[in-house]
Specification:
The protein has 538 residues and is mainly β. The protein is built from three helices and 38 strands. The protein has a 38-stranded antiparallel sheet that branches. The termini are far apart.
């Protein structure tokens, strides 16, 4: 009896399907004319079909290997309530939808509206499309617009990443997913946390569209609000003042950063900042890069460096600047062309500059000039020796010259082949001059009045300075010195060969390092040497 009944039911289902298919082909009812997108749900198979009009009016109760078809989609389940007039159904047990052989959805329950083409999966939901698998307990799949979304927490997995969030949306046609609220993207090397994220399951690129924190292998932290990160090759484009922080204490900030983590290289465009929290320096510019492997950085286009290792920060500007951390030499800084430096106690200009941390030496090349208080220092090469970020002494090599402004027309002067200018509490207190040493200075009475002009020539001179004036001059035994009354010497004889006063070039503030004042003409080197030789041999 059961087998006969089953055969009759099957024949009835087939006949019903044929009738419905025929009706679908010939119907001209007003509803179909109104909305051409509405298509009928067809029952293709079941083991039993029954009706219970008393308890379930207008409901077909289906059990056993149930299968429906709607357009290009097939629906499978263990049992179902089929509401033929409403063109909808409720499916239970081992629910499965196959969409055009490309998208497959699973769940314990399904509520399907054929008119709206809306599938609502519930409990143990899984959505697969070959590129990814989405897990959740509640998923709505809008077949009309080809959009799947969840709102009570879900997880998307592909070959590289796992993404979790409270709310998520997936567009199979575009391989695009959007996640919101407590978003986490993870793989063995990388973790991303955000409030909102767009993700492409085909390219594995995450689009950053809100405050986002990324961590790579406990080595690098990235903070951004706009940009993208390719999780396949660990390349990223970070916008809107993003920040990259490395475990060694260095960080990169910029308007736009192109970052390749595998190559350990970042290129920064506009308002770049490369900060070393260990050395307490910040390198800035409108274009630059940082090479993690080489621990080297570069900045150009309004490039400048701030050394904030002491309360009195040092500000340095040049056309291009380079930093590097060397195992043997420590931090190295190189600045090229039109160098200008400001510190409250020392200012300088030169053509190029290097600083080696281990030796605490800053070298100024090509017509360097330094200022301290009312004193100007110049030479062919100046090596500045630092102690805890303060100047200990300066070594002036070749054409060494120190000038101190006494008043608007009078200058104390010291020149020689080589000098050492020693500083204490931010002021020069002693100068050693050797090799064709010459001096011009203006002794003063206790009341500050100038006594006269003292000119000396010697092979070696030591000058002591107190309260910004010369207090003592020590000469070698074989020396020449003459005191002249004021006004007795012609004006040109009151200046040593090689004298120049470049106060207009002196940076007056941190911002003044960016100015470009006219350059004061330097004396000819040959003429300066000849003048010094003639003076010493008189």
């Amino acid at each position: 009896m059961m087998s006969i009944r089953y055969i009759l039911l099957s024949l009835g289902i087939i006949a019903l399907s044929c009738c419905r298919e025929l009706a679908a082909q010939n119907t001209n009812d007003s509803t179909r004319q109104k909305n051409a997108k509405v298509t009928l749900v067809y029952l293709e198979n079941c083991e039993t079909l029954s009706f219970d009009e008393a308890n379930l009016p207008e409901t077909q109760v289906l059990k056993g290997n149930v299968r429906f078809r709607h357009d290009s989609a097939l629906l499978y389940c263990d049992s179902a309530y089929f509401y033929e007039k409403r063109n909808s159904l409720d499916a239970f047990g081992n629910v499965k939808i196959v969409q055009a052989d490309t998208l497959v959805g699973y769940g314990d329950k399904l509520y399907y509206d054929g008119n709206r083409k809306m599938a609502r999966f519930r409990k143990n939901v899984r959505l697969e499309d070959g590129k990814m698998t989405l897990y959740t307990d509640s998923l709505n799949y809008d077949r009309l617009n080809n959009i799947a979304y969840y709102y009570k927490g879900g997880k998307l997995c592909d070959s590289i990443n796992t993404l979790t969030s409270v709310w998520g949306q997936y567009l199979p046609e575009w391989n695009r997913a959007t996640f919101k609220n407590n978003v986490v993207l993870e793989n063995p090397d990388f973790r991303l946390e955000s409030d909102t994220l767009n993700y492409n399951t085909s390219t594995n690129v995450a689009d950053i569209v809100g405050p986002t924190k990324m961590k790579y292998k406990e080595e690098t932290d990235i903070f951004s609000t706009n940009g993208w990160y390719n999780t396949q090759n660990d390349q990223s484009m970070l916008l809107d003042r993003s920040v990259i922080v490395h475990k060694d204490g260095k960080s990169i900030t910029g308007d736009t950063i192109y970052y390749d983590k595998r190559k350990q290289f970042g290129t920064i465009y506009h308002n770049m900042q490369l900060t070393d929290s260990v050395q307490k320096t910040t390198l800035c510019g409108h274009y630059g890069y940082y090479d993690e492997a080489a621990e080297a950085g570069m900045a150009t286009d309004s490039a400048f460096l701030i050394d904030w290792s002491s309360p009195d920060s040092l500000f340095l500007h040049a056309d291009s600047m380079f930093t590097k951390t060397d195992t043997a030499k420590g931090n190295i800084i190189r600045a090229y062309y039109k160098v200008r430096m400001y510190k409250s106690d020392v200012q300088a200009v030169c053509d190029s500059l290097t600083y080696i941390e281990k030796d605490s030496i800053m070298s100024l090349y090509n017509e360097p000039v330094m200022w301290n208080e009312n004193q100007q220092i110049s030479a062919t090469l100046i090596n500045v020796y630092l102690n805890d970020s303060t100047v200990d002494y300066a070594h002036l090599i070749n054409q060494a010259f120190v000038a101190r402004q006494v008043d608007s027309i009078c200058f104390d002067q010291m020149s020689g082949k080589e000098m050492f200018a020693f500083m204490r509490d931010g002021e020069i207190y002693k100068v050693d001059v050797s090799g064709n040493a010459e001096t011009v200075f203006y002794p003063k009475e206790d009341d500050g009045n100038i006594i006269g002009i003292n000119k000396t020539q010697s092979s070696y001179v030591t000058i002591f300075i107190e309260n910004r004036k010369i207090s003592k001059v020590l000469l070698t035994a074989v020396s020449n010195g003459t005191m002249f009354p004021l006004g007795q010497l012609p004006k040109e004889d009151t200046y040593l060969g090689g004298f120049f006063w470049a106060e207009q070039e002196r940076p007056k503030s941190p911002l003044d390092i960016f100015s470009n004042p006219p350059k004061t003409p330097r004396p000819d080197a040959a003429a300066t040497a000849a003048s010094a030789s003639a003076s010493i041999n008189k």
